[in-house]
Amino acid sequence: MLPWPVPSIGDHARPRLQKGLFVSRKINLASCTAAICGLLGSASIASAQHFRMPDSVVRDPSLPIGTPDAMLPRPTTSFGATTSDGWIYVIGGYTGPPHDYYMEEQQRDFYRINLHDRSHIEWLPNESRIQSCTLEAHDGSIYRIGGMVALNRKHEDQALDSLDLVWRFDPGTSEWTPTTSLPEPRSSHDSTVSGSKIVVVGGWRMDGISGERAWHDDVLIMDMDDADAGWKSIPAPFERRALATTAIDGDVVVIGGISSKRSVSESMDILDLDTGEWSQGPDYPGIAFGMAAETIDGRVVASGADGKVFSWAPGESEWTQCGSLTFPRFFHQIATGPSSDLYFIGGISRGVRPTHMERVQLGEAGSMPSVTVMSIPTPMKAKNRQGVFVHDGWLHLYGGNNSVGQHDFDADNFLSDGHRLSLADLSWRKGTAFPAARQTIQTCMDGDGNAYAIGGFGHDGEVARGWTDGYRYDMKTRTWNDDGPDLPVPRSQFGLVEDEGRMWAFGGLDYDPRREEGDQFRHLTEVVVAEPGADFAYDGLHLPEPRRAFAGAKLGGHYYMVGGMRENFQLVENCRAFDFETREFMEIPSPSRPRLSAELVALDGRLYLAGGSSPKVNGSGLESNRSIECFDPETNTWSVVMDEIPINPRHMRMMPYRGRLLLFTSHVADEDMVTLAFVDPGYQMTSRVGQVPEDE
Questions:
Q1: Model's pTM, two decimal places?
Q2: What confidence tens digit (pLDDT) does each residue in 43-52 have?
């Protein structure tokens, strides 16, 4: 027997993410391109949410950060989940816009994920479209408790109905059987298991016919050793829903939620199941609406929309942060795994439902680097040298070159197309085209939600050359505007950075093949600065030496320049740091080998260098440099973090993303694919490279 089905809208073939390669945190989706394209094309973007997610993370390096893990077959919110016998069970959920519920977006999914091989997913029988139910595991069975169904279709008046049904699923026979129903319908609740008791907490009752709503002010308990006795009610000192519940040491812990007075509560209420008495613990320090909680290793662990993971143990007077997520989420679930692993599943992040599960290992952060690699289909035609910036969980790409050749600069090689990739659910959106077909455009962002794209290299109908124009991208309107600052002379392959409202351009090349031989390559040493609302102008500063195609990044009050090329196609072997306050250049140590066209990123007080090319160790010429190196300004020392990154370093881009390094490349010859890598660099210095004496 299957659970009572809600009104049917027909069975349509749904895209499923088939079992694919998942080894050492590497996700290869190329073998399931058709399935993933269908999934990404139909991904729902939420139109609203209660809280704004943080743009970035100030990471405590001693705490772990979530590692993107296996992919969910369909990301949802307000679903049920539980763990049993090495499996994570997931049921139902919603995929439409928040607060606009209709049956077409309520899911009947029911599947389980193998905790030991999380690419292995088994689909289980279920006919009911449902959301806002809970799942609990007891004595080998899975219990589905309460929930909510939409009686209306899209564009019909909303009619939402809470359920009183409780069903038991037997994994051995794959059969559902009904058990004792709840005394009243209940949704937006939570539940937990303590010993032989299933405990249901919070929520409300919605009547889809009358439209009435009533908040529950009690806790329901069923002792499975005496199931015939039915549900026992205990008064609760609150009326809340969208809360989190877990059990520890015979007590039930209830955290957060929203009250019947429409205020978010940070309270932690503790129910002693033996006495029926309530007490209070310390308030939850994060965002406590739509949060999730679980118990592991004698501690309660919880997370909410801010992406912070907190833990608490009985007897403690406050919560302690124990980690953070790469993709903050709420209306999600937490599952426990072996080796003190926690898995954060589903939910919504900045209006997008994360496709990734995230794994957090409790304890001190590891000193060794870790990496997750994903290959996904792309609608982009650009193979490299796009303009790139990250904002609000989206990777924005525009322009670029459609060839993998190093010097293919015909007019039709340059592109203006724009695309956006959601890092949470890996879905693509068509972006606003760049005003010109360009490559090697330099970008930076200000504090007012604007991105700037300056200069670059493109074709004028006669030749490919450098350009001077600057453009501003308005994040709110998603439009390009021609009021960005222009350069005094054409410039490409330069460094661009914002500091206290001013934009600075360092180094670069003014290339024009129409000039006389010997004057086609002008290496620019003049530093130009753009005041707010003005074009770039010479500021009286010069680089100590010519430098283009270098790696640059701002850290603290300094702009760092590593590697690059100078006149006569010679590599620049030294490195510089520019002090914005003193307006002076100083030399810093160099990494293990010079690099050309590398990437430099500031993260957690250090600089990380990756990609590009270096002189061959044996022989002449250049070769791809696959290592990641780290510069610590405190010790004035470089170290090797990773000897070999699992991604093609040629034309690779790197940027910081929520406490990690995000690597990106579309430099793939024969396939319309891109590769992403999330790298936690760790803090192990595997080899020390060098140090410049203080008096140099």
A1: 0.85
A2: 333 333 334 4
